[in-house]
């Protein structure tokens, strides 16, 4: 049985600014992400990658065209629908964005608590399990300042995955990492995604990640210029 794609984008245009400063950032972008797929979105700086990611992540409003996320149209969707959808997403950013005053496990617990009504003990249990999966079972009570760059990024991966998201959106997750840590983080994302059926859309211009992708989409000047299927 074929399932609906997690993400289906049709004729997406996007503009920034207004008046004379108005500038089109995306032109007629089309993209389909099948459930469980691992897609890399690449392209030069300023080509529109982050804009696509923030639109799919319900972090900015869709102006023109259609973005369907888990079957729901985002254009014109109300705030409640967008909040509900956002709770089913996992975000990983270039800078790990951990709270420096919270320990690794407290940071990951915050990833559980985006969903209302999860009891503290259960959240802590899930967070400990997620940190175990990323190989940090012995670092639960460390503050970010006492973790390496790769370890911090793995905490961010655990935080993104702990709520069992349907879709992980990752923006340059390996930019701050050395070669080995970058490969570890990507392999981890891919493995956990495969085990849980999570779909991943990863933005990067890091060539080291490309051989791990199921699909590589390339954006240039706001347009998709190539789609390479590797499955
Ligand atoms: N908030 C904004 N206001 C005005 N213009 C913006 C804004 N955000 C992005 N842009 C413009 O939209 C275009 C696409 O930007 P975007 O950040 O999506 O590119 P990118 O491919 O992610 O770049 P990078 O790899 O450098 O992060 C660029 O020309 C950028 O200057």
From TrEMBL:
Q: What is this protein called?
A: ATP-binding cassette domain-containing protein
What's in the GO CC field? plasma membrane
Q: Single GO molecular-function term?
A: ATP binding
Supply the alphabetized keyword list: ATP-binding, Nucleotide-binding, Transport
InterPro entries in the record, alphabetically?
Answer: AAA+_ATPase, ABC_heterocyst_DevA, ABC_transporter-like_ATP-bd, ABC_transporter-like_CS, ABC_transpr_LolD-like, MacB-like_ATP-bd, P-loop_NTPase
Q: Which residues cross the membrane?
A: none
- SMART domains listed in its UniProt record: AAA (SM00382)
Q: Which residues form the ABC transporter domain?
A: 9-231
Q: Which CDD domains match?
A: ABC_MJ0796_LolCDE_FtsE (cd03255)
Taxonomic classification: Bacteria, Pseudomonadati, Pseudomonadota, Alphaproteobacteria, Rhodobacterales
Query: Quick check: keyword ATP-binding in the entry?
Result: yes
